[in-house]
């Protein structure tokens, strides 16, 4: 940032304030012109404008032009949440030649227009938040990003379709890759599939197309029957211990710069008796049925020696479970999420059955059909044209029992069918296939090792589904495939490629650039009490270091997340968070409690 104008402290600041209409999201509730007028009357504010969309190219250009023309040395934008466009506006400052951290954001959409009734109160609240932002902006420092040396090597955990795809992409981008897989062989769940929708390609062909170049690559090391034991370090410099199947051999340390979590999923396994599973031989899961089809390349379809003339497919088994209707399996929570891929997978399998045995009677029992992907709706339409009979149930799942002794079928299904004006139907079938969902993978140990969070459904949690879709809260870790949520093969590969690109962008320059909003210690004030170290929830971020002036606290900026827990407990105000200092907070509070004149 040395080439950018970076005033050391604001003495006679020149602050620019920009108030966004947000296309009516703000201006329909807040009088943005009045807010801009009141901001213009604040000390040190030399420019105060409104704009329909500050995040647009004209809005960003306006900031950059005013920095150059008006000599601005601080910028405040009042708009939507900083989670959406704070980075956008910091880049606008760079375009104008100003340090990007001399910027302050006032959220007057989520905190005002979306949360406050229309009227003078909303406008006054917005003006107060802008005043507080200006007060803080006067005290902003021209910070510089934290830069850390980075290893150009990535650990991929899991060698399923997502792990293999990520490894190939990382290697193609010039990084060394180590893939660890706890199973005996790579491939994950893909090894158990036959043909994949939407094009019917053999899963074995897809696996071979991924595995062959992985095994041939000089940049990729594949370790099977290997698990992660522990990890220390931080983004750019993780030291991960892995253990092979031979426990007599010592663990191996892998020095990597980033980690891709491609830990996959677990297929839902019904408990004994659920929809007749394991109590009625003619009831099986979809994966079991797919394996049966793979073992039946030609000839009639038989199960347990009985010919199959009719088959029913029951959707949403182990997905969208409802408390009070479904009982969780021992040691498992209710699976309340939609597994997304099941509907299309069932329809694809139904079509496969009808292509091979056109005389087969096929019934599809569902509560909702969700063929969301590209080309998936055509599979639904084709299944209907091919003769699949659809039955829709709501709230109460179908009842599954053995067929009566005088029936030549094996299983009876009763349901109230919405598609036949809520008639109660009885279907006698030779086979019932349960469309089982996807559960989060076994990641408990990894969650502890890497300090990762999970969603309500147990899948690995990203920071934001749109803005940071493959990044958890821990820097240097990336998410790929169904470790994050239910995905089909195509989606798993897409997210794996996204994770690979993110990791490569992070490590490609040989150093990692982190936001500067981390704790910093003023040694002259530090008494070495250690209260900050005790309060810190991030191992290694703070430590006590002896020195000639006595013991002092020291911050590791690579591990500090800027949470401020240390600031709150320091008895001598010797520690602050850069960009959010106590003096800045004091100035904001003073501005908030100060009277604001109506405009």
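-> sequence recovered:
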């Amino acid at each position: 940032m040395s080439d950018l104008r970076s005033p050391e402290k604001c003495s006679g600041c020149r602050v620019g304030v920009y108030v966004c209409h947000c296309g009516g999201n703000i201006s329909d509730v807040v009088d943005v012109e009045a807010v801009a007028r009141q901001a213009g009357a604040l000390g040190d504010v030399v420019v105060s404008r409104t704009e329909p969309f500050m995040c647009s190219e004209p809005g960003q250009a306006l900031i950059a032009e005013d920095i150059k023309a008006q000599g601005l040395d601080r910028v405040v934008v009042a708009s939507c949440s900083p989670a959406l466009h704070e980075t956008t506006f910091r880049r606008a400052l760079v375009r104008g030649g100003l340090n990007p951290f001399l910027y302050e954001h006032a959220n007057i959409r989520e905190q005002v227009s979306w949360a406050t009734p229309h009227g003078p109160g909303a406008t006054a609240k917005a003006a107060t938040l802008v005043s507080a932002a200006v007060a803080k902006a006067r005290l902003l420092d021209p910070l510089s990003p934290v830069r850390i040396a980075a290893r150009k090597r990535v650990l991929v955990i899991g060698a399923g379709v997502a792990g293999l795809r990520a490894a190939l992409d990382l290697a193609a981008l010039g990084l060394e890759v180590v893939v660890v897989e706890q199973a005996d062989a790579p491939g994950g769940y893909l090894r158990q599939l036959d043909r994949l929708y939407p094009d019917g390609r053999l899963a074995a062909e897809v696996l071979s197309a991924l595995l062959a170049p992985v095994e041939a690559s000089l940049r990729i090391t594949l370790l099977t029957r290997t698990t992660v034991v522990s990890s220390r370090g931080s983004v750019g410099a993780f030291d991960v211990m892995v253990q092979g199947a031979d426990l007599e051999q010592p663990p191996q340390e892998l020095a990597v710069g980033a980690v891709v979590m491609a830990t996959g999923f677990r297929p839902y396994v019904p408990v004994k008796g659920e929809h007749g599973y394991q109590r009625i031989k003619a009831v099986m899961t979809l994966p079991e049925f797919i394996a049966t089809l793979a073992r039946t390349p030609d000839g009639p379809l038989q199960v347990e020696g009985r010919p199959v003339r009719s088959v029913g497919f029951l959707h949403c088994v182990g997905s969208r479970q409802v408390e009070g209707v479904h009982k969780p399996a021992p040691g498992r929570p209710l699976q309340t999420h939609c597994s997304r891929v099941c509907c299309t997978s069932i329809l694809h399998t139904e079509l496969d059955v009808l292509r091979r045995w056109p005389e087969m009677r096929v019934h599809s029992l569902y509560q909702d059909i969700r063929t969301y992907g590209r080309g998936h709706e055509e599979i639904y339409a084709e299944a209907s044209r091919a003769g699949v009979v659809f039955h829709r149930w709501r709230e109460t799942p179908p009842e599954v029992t053995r067929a009566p002794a005088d029936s030549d079928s094996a299983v009876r299904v009763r349901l109230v069918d919405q598609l036949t004006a809520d008639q109660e139907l009885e279907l006698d079938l030779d086979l019932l296939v349960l469309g089982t969902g996807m559960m989060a993978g076994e990641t408990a140990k990894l969650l502890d090792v890497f300090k990762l969070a999970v969603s309500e459904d147990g899948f690995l949690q990203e920071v934001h589904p749109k803005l940071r879709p493959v990044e958890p809260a821990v820097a240097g870790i990336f998410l790929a495939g169904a470790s994050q949520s239910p995905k089909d093969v195509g989606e798993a590969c897409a997210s794996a490629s996204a994770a690979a690109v993110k990791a490569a962008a992070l490590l490609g320059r040989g150093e990692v650039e982190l936001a500067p909003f981390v704790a910093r210690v003023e040694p002259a004030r530090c008494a070495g009490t250690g209260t900050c170290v005790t309060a810190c929830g991030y191992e290694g971020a703070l430590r006590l270091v002896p020195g000639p002036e006595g013991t002092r606290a020291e911050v590791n900026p690579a591990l500090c997340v800027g949470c401020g827990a240390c600031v709150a407990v320091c008895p001598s105000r010797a520690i602050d968070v850069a960009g959010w200092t106590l003096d800045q907070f004091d100035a904001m509070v003073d501005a908030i409690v100060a009277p604001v004149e109506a405009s």
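Confidence is low (pLDDT under 50) at residues 1-8.
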